[in-house]
Amino acid sequence: MRFLIIPGVLLLCCRVGLVLAEVSYFSVRVAEPYIELHTGPGRGYPVFYVADRGELLDVLMRRTDWFRVRTAGGKEGWVKREAMELTLTPEGEPTQFADADLGDFSRRRWEAGVLGGDFEGADVLSVYAGYAMTPIFSAELSMSQVFGDYSDALIASVDLVAQPFPEWRVSPFFSLGSGIIYTDPNVTLVDENDRTEPIGNVGVGLRCYLTRRFLLRAEYRNYVIFQDKDDNQEIDGWKAGFAFFF
Amino acid sequence: MESRFRIFLLRTACVAVAAILSQGCSLLQTSDTEYTDQEPVITPDLERRTITEADIDSEDFEAGIFVGVMSVEDFGSNVVYGARAAYHISEDFFTEAAIGRTDTDETSYETLSGGAQILSGSDRQLTYYNISLGYNLLPGEAFIGGSHAFNSALYIIAGVGNTEFANDSHFTVNVGAGYRFLLNDWIALHLDFRDHIFDSDLLGSDKTTHNLEGTGGVTVFF
């Protein structure tokens, strides 16, 4: 009985494999007099085959704005998006591809990005992620690394960001947040200990919708480090970078 | 006489049938005109369908590992290894995040002096991470023999990041170029040369160091 189980399992695996291999592809029908198939996903790759009007093409995959298609005769090549949009679906409707646009930018839920800039003369590098609770208000979590001449620092911050005009392509925002700063003095300096202190910030910035799921972001922030000493330290910082949303 | 009567009957029947038929036709016609004033019986219920990302397998992400040699200024050349992930924004541009690690040797001074050590144990290890923007400068095809063609691209890339070395973080700019060779639609081989530039004051005065790295790697698109 036992030696029947192993071939049985193998056979089952094969069956599963066969089922998985039978992928049904989305297909389009050529509506223009012809459609050009390129050898690669780029404008410079040569056209090696031309499919005629009425031919049905299986769409195998997409890379950026190029689609890999297979003709009924088994020819596989790349078709650019503009040409694909002139084809018809099997139902006879014009083919349209959904892509993120300005409307999706206004309605975005999640946003994440990378920013670089200046933190009172020192270089700073930040990564952040945000969630929009309403079109106007969002909560953001950011981690920044500061590379100073005398010390390095790591800042973790939670911010509330208000964007009064979410539907604008270039949209200003205001932020208010607090967190902690971990300061690590450089080893070459003596008598300085690592320290962790609370930090608060207010900021103003701009988001600019770029294309697809990308945006540019620039911001200025005024930080206050609540030090153990009597007086607090105020720091000006600016950052710029890019982000994507989904 | 009888035949004449038959003809009469036939004629009457013909007239009756013609009358009934014409009546029927006019009835049908009136019913047609009645319908044209109303809504069409069948309304085409076709919604214009937009093809979403779920319909077509979109393969714009690329991830993989690499290994090579990295020369850390004053600290010798050693094996470097790491991982990279990229997102292809368009046929021209892509963004890449990478992380790498290498060990470093003793400086010439340390070797010659015999016992002096500038760095201890784990401080000798260098770890970097960066985020870069790449541009496919020379996309093309490579031919092996007469019947095999492979898509490839020579790209230039630059970015910023952090280098952890000698118990210190260094803001690092990286610039370089690479060659991507696609074995098929989803497996790619990489050759990559990068200069990691950061300021270091480890050997006294502040100076800009150039740390050259050459790696080979493999990535998959998904």
CA radius of gyration of chain A is: 27 Å
Number of strands of chain B: 8
- In angstroms, what separates the terminal alpha carbons of chain A? 53 Å
Order of SSEs of chain B: HEEEHEEEEE
Oligomeric state as shown? heterodimer
Strand order in space, largest sheet of chain B: 1-2-3-4-5-6-7-8
Using CB atoms under 8 Å apart, which protein chain pair has the greatest interface?
A-B, 40 and 37 residues
In the CATH hierarchy, what is the class of the largest domain in chain A?
Answer: Mainly Beta
Mean pLDDT of chain B: 83
Count every helix of chain B, treating DSSP H or I runs of 4 or more residues as helices: 2
Task: Give a quick summary of the entry.
Chain A is mainly β. Chain A has two domains: 22-97, SH3 Domains (SH3 type barrels); 103-245, Porin.
Topology:
The complex is a heterodimer of chains A (246) and B (222).
Chain A: H1 2-21, E1 26-29, E2 34-38, E3 47-52, E4 56-63, E5 66-70, E6 76-80, H2 81-84, H3 102-106, E7 110-119, E8 122-132, E9 137-147, E10 151-162, E11 170-185, E12 195-211, E13 214-225, E14 233-245
Antiparallel strand pairs in A: 1-4, 2-3, 4-5, 5-6, 7-8, 7-14, 8-9, 9-10, 10-11, 11-12, 12-13, 13-14
Chain B: H1 2-36, E1 61-71, E2 77-88, E3 93-102, H2 108-113, E4 126-144, E5 148-165, E6 168-182, E7 187-200, E8 207-221
Antiparallel strand pairs in B: 1-2, 1-8, 2-3, 3-4, 4-5, 5-6, 6-7, 7-8
Can you characterise this structure?
The complex is a heterodimer of chains A (246) and B (222). By secondary structure, chain A is mostly beta strands. Helices cover 12% and strands 55% of the residues of chain A. Chain A contains 3 helices and 14 strands. In chain A, the strands form 3 sheets. Chain A has an 8-stranded antiparallel barrel with strand order 7-8-9-10-11-12-13-14. The relative contact order of chain A is 0.12. The model of chain A is unreliable at 10-20 (pLDDT under 50). Chain B folds into 2 domains: 1-41; 61-221, Porin, CATH 2.40.160. Chain B has helices spanning 2-36, 108-113; strands at residues 61-71, 77-88, 93-102, 126-144, 148-165, 168-182, 187-200, 207-221. Chain B has an 8-stranded antiparallel barrel. Mean pLDDT of chain B is 83; it is low at 24-28 and 30-35. Classes of the chains: A mainly beta (246), B alpha+beta (222). The interface between A and B is large, with 40 and 37 residues.
